[in-house]
């Protein structure tokens, strides 16, 4: 049965049965839209591939990474028996590549989690409290920010090598010491702009604890920055762990940086043994690329200006053509001229609105 609509309802603006209330938000606008950026999709696909490789790599490796085969004075090129050739000790390079990503990802994840936690605690606390606490915490962050990271890491890893320890958690913790200050500075600056917002003042007036205001009111609005800081720290840890392994400061272990260390020691780049150093180097580069793509994708998702700038040329042309194709109503205004002033063209158009 169809409800009748009276003229009074239409004129007075009363709600019509079956229609949406004025100011009501459609249901489709309230749903959370997941990011569909090509950068995020490509970054997630590449990162998922490396995570899967680190899990099943040791299981599907055709040989043990330290197994020595037929005696030969030089590394053997790729063949059916060894898909990526062998080293100077006749060890299978393909097996080493499959096994070498697990420790790197684990160390990078540990370093990212610890450094991000330090950044959140120190940066958000300093920005919200202000005063002397802000000065002291900011000074601590500035010290680690200007401290030369590479000499400090060389000293720490050199001491770690002398102890004979190869604890991955300890290695990740050492890397995180030099990687948390940048994120803390960014989170402090954003917290300074959020602590005087109306909803924070309301929570403070009704007597909420500082810890609840920080973690329930301010921190949820910093989620994109926290995610960006985490990805940046993981990327920093990947490069740092690779560099330390390449310099020989990490105990001998089958990782991609260690493969580059052994290849450089045997002058593989000068003698043309490309299959020894290109696969691990390419794996490190692609892993870093996946993290960079995710970082850029998150920035575009939360920043409308970057999202508009990231449109492809085809998308820009489509958006511009849709604007040009819009037709606006033009209403001509006609004035009737008196007979005494009449001209051959009596109706005169004054303009169009």
Mean pLDDT level: 79
SSE arrangement, N to C: HHHHHHHHHHHHHHHHHEE
Give the tally of β-strands. 2
Our estimate of the beta-strand percent is under 5%
Strand order of the largest sheet: 1-2
Helix content: 55-70%
Number of helices: 17
End-to-end span in angstroms? Answer: 43 Å
Low-confidence stretches: 1-32, 326-330, 346-353
Largest beta-sheet details: 2 strands, antiparallel
Query: Helix/strand/pairing class, anyone?
Result: mainly alpha
Kindly provide the radius of gyration, computed on alpha-carbon positions and rounded to a whole number of angstroms: 32 Å
Could you say which overall geometry the principal axes of the C-alpha atoms support? globular
Q: Can you walk through the features of this model?
A:
The chain has 17 helices and 2 strands. It has helices at 7-12, 27-30, 38-60, 93-99, 101-129, 131-146, 149-163, 168-177, 181-194, 198-205, 210-218, 223-246, 256-265, 268-271, 274-302, 304-309, 313-324, and strands at 332-336, 347-352. Helix 5 crosses helix 12 (223-246) and helix 13 runs antiparallel to helix 15 (274-302). The chain has 353 residues and is mainly α. The model is unreliable at 1-32, 326-330 and 346-353 (pLDDT under 50).
